[in-house]
Amino acid sequence: MDAARTAGLLTTAQAADALAGALRAGLDPEACPRRSSVSAPGGELLLMPAASGAYAGVKIAGVAPGNPARGLPRITGSFLLLDGPTLRPLALLDGAALTALRTPAVSALALRYLTGPGRPLRLVLFGAGPQAYGHLEAVLELRELAEAVVVARDPGRAGELAAHARTLGVPARTGTPEDVAGADLVLCCTSAREPLFDGRLVAPGAVVVAVGSHEPDARETDTALVRRAAVYVESRAAALREAGDLLIPEAEGAIGPGHISGTLAELVAGGNSPGGRPGCPQLFKSVGMAWEDLAVAVAIYHAAGANGET
């Protein structure tokens, strides 16, 4: 399946349902194989295998930081879906399109539990690439927005995303990192290696989602936010291997390994009431995991069969 077919068969909400279904069926993210990484001339080559139930699969992804300057996507690759009992190949999906769907779906699933019903949300969105667009649309499937403020290194691209948000019926503008002080929801979808904003500005009860990195020495949020936030992750083991947002504050002595409040599986199982903990900020830190790619790929495969495309 090329990028258009891979991206066009599921909404973000449907992909989030697939993730929740996998967790409710007993998939344990803590047992998911760790990501393998190999340095390559253009960046980093990632190998992400997973197996669960009737299916197995592997994503081979490239992360090429220089590609956007060439007019090419930063994330490349393919996902091979296999029949679990026989390991016969079933489908080959565009890896970048799968990632562009899976990552907002993971965030959307967490936000179902961390944001409760109520007034429209004020959003601050860091980044102006594919993940920023995907997360904006994922949030709009979930909640109404009172305003969207886009913050990005490139003012032109920030303006383009704000204009796109306005076409979706959202009052939107470009802004600065200080706008987080008025936000109900902050989405970090960047390739930044240093904190994007002052975590002391984030209001109690606000939710921050950070998806931009999976490296121990890179982070989008600062120690001040992490120290005062209730922190949720996809997997404790994966976060404590790869999430610089948590590992750097731990190395500084600001938090301990028990600082994580909960996991995505625990949220889905009912470990947190809708709306989360209003007395402090809430941070959902995602590093991206192979089981998520597998769950969404299986849902895409089923959707393609239902539409007569397989």
What do these coordinates show?
The protein is an alpha/beta fold. It folds into 2 domains: 113 residues, ornithine cyclodeaminase, domain 1, CATH 3.30.1780; 190 residues, NAD(P)-binding Rossmann-like Domain (Rossmann fold, 3-Layer(aba) Sandwich), CATH 3.40.50.720. It has 10 helices and 13 strands. It has an 8-stranded parallel beta sheet. Helix 2 crosses helix 3, helix 2 packs across helix 10 and helix 3 packs across helix 10. The model has no long low-confidence stretch (mean pLDDT 93).
Overall CATH class of the largest domain: Alpha Beta
CATH superfamily of the largest domain: NAD(P)-binding Rossmann-like Domain
What amount of the residues lies in strands? 15-25%
Q: Tell me the CATH architecture of the largest domain.
A: 3-Layer(aba) Sandwich
Individual helix count? 10
Mean pLDDT score:
93
Organism: Streptomyces katrae
Protein name: Ornithine cyclodeaminase
Pfam family, one: OCD_Mu_crystall
Throw out a few tags for this protein.
Rossmann fold; ODC_Mu_crystall; 2 domains; NAD(P)-bd_dom_sf; ODC_N; 310 residues; 35% helix; eight-stranded parallel sheet; ornithine cyclodeaminase, domain 1; five-stranded antiparallel sheet; Ornithine cyclodeaminase
